[in-house]
Amino acid sequence: MSPHYMRSFSEGCLRPPTVIGQFHTLFFGSVRMFFLGVLGFAVYGNEALHFSCDPDKREVNLFCYNQFRPITPQVFWALQLVIVLVPGAFFHLYAACKSIKQEDILQKSFYSGFYIFSVFLRIILEAMAFWLQIQLFGFKVSAIYMCDMGALEKKFNITRCMVPEHFEKTIFLIAMYTFTVITVVLCVAEIFEISCRRLGFLKTQ
Fold first, then answer.
1. Which of 20, 92, 108, 140 is an S-S bond match for 190, by CB 3.0 to 4.6 Å?
2. In 3D, which of 32, 71, 78, 29 has the Cα closest to residue 48?
């Protein structure tokens, strides 16, 4: 891909054709990623080291932690952010290859329809991630986790494990749910803005 296409692609990703889309990019790129990258590491960075069970042995702690966390929250949310960005990135890559200007996206039905489809895909992906997060992490992190150690052939099949900083993790969970909801609301509002511009209720940029 030539430097011109790369420049058009980056400009399209950073400056979407709608006002709400630009706000979404700012929110998604700065607030949400900063929150996950900085605070997420502070809250979850040493979780595996401080996760302890009774008896407090390395093999027991490791086995129960893997049962407690099939996937770490940081990895899940990072995958969520990357996957949600794919539809928009694909559209802007198409626009760059076709030399479509940002102002033309809202003026031509095919381009605006394609863009709305990419936003709709973002909504679906966010909703799926929201559901998966509920299945994996729930809404609250308990201080005690009851681990099933039957696979280790221990005398006691159920053991108690202490979850470090469970209250902070609960707050972080709620925050990530809130970010997902805000993103979905922004996507719906962006579709509404495009529809209003197409119908002439708002002036195009």
1. 20
2. 71
Q: Using one digit for the tens of pLDDT, what is the confidence trace for 37-49?
A: 777 777 787 788 8
The answer to whether residue 104 sits within a structural domain is yes
How many folded domains does the chain comprise?
A: 1
Q: In whole numbers, what is the pLDDT of the chain averaged over residues?
A: 80
Residue 112: give the domain boundaries. 23-204
Nearest to 71 by CA among 112, 129, 22: 129
- Tell me whether residue 1 is in a domain: no
pLDDT digits (tens, 9 = 90+) for 165-193: 889 889 989 988 998 998 899 889 988 88
User: What is the residue type of 147?
Assistant: C
Side by side, which strands form the sheet with 158-162? 52-53, 158-162, 144-148
Reduced to 3 states (helix: H, G, I; strand: E, B; else coil), residue 115 is helix
Is residue 10 a part of any domain in this protein?
no
